[in-house]
Amino acid sequence: MPTTDKITDAVAEYARRLKAGDPARIAALYAEDATVEDPAGSAVRKGREAIAAFYAELDGLALTAELLTVRASGDTAAFHLRVVTTTDEFVSSIEPIDVMTFDEQGRITSMRAIWSPADVVHRRRSDQ
Predict the structure, then answer these.
(1) What positions does the domain SnoaL-like occupy (predicted)?
(2) For residue 34, with 0-12 CB atoms within 10 Å meaning exposed, 13-18 middle and 19 or more buried, which class applies?
(3) Strand ranges, E, within 1-128
(4) Tens of pLDDT, residues 76-115
(5) Who has the most CB within 10 Å: 23, 73, 102, 119?
(6) SS3 for 54?
(7) Catalytic annotation on 38?
(8) How, if at all, do strands 30-37 and 108-114 pair?
């Protein structure tokens, strides 16, 4: 079982790579046969290639990601993350709770993001 430190370090690295918006580097944190369900209840993406394709949707976005809290126990972490994307017209913010499991090497074996469209806050940039 991975140590709590290894898990919390992996979560922090995930947040850094998410902020950098590099799909291949994000997918590299996952085990080959890992799964992503984002949001929970949506189609499950399985395997590193499908996961990289999912994160490819971040390409070209002005995005920030801030890790707010992390809790780790056993092979599992739950964490609260703030993700803000900015376009010419809108600033959108969401704060999902993600749950990840990890293998012995600290690679992500599963990720479920708990959020719904009602949790996304959109503001016009002119309203700032």
Answers:
(1) 11-110
(2) buried
(3) 30-37, 45-46, 62-73, 76-86, 90-94, 97-102, 108-114, 121-124
(4) 999 999 999 998 899 999 999 999 999 999 999 999 999 9
(5) 102
(6) helix
(7) yes
(8) parallel
pLDDT band at 22 (very low <50, low <70, confident <90, very high): confident
Q: Which CATH class is domain 4-127?
A: alpha beta
Specify the pLDDT at position 80.
98
- Among residues 9, 30, 38, 119, the one annotated as catalytic is 38
Token match 């949790």: residue? 119
Q: Which of 101, 64, 91, 94 is nearest to 80 (CA)?
A: 94
Domain definitions of the chain by residue range: 4-127
Active site residue 14: yes
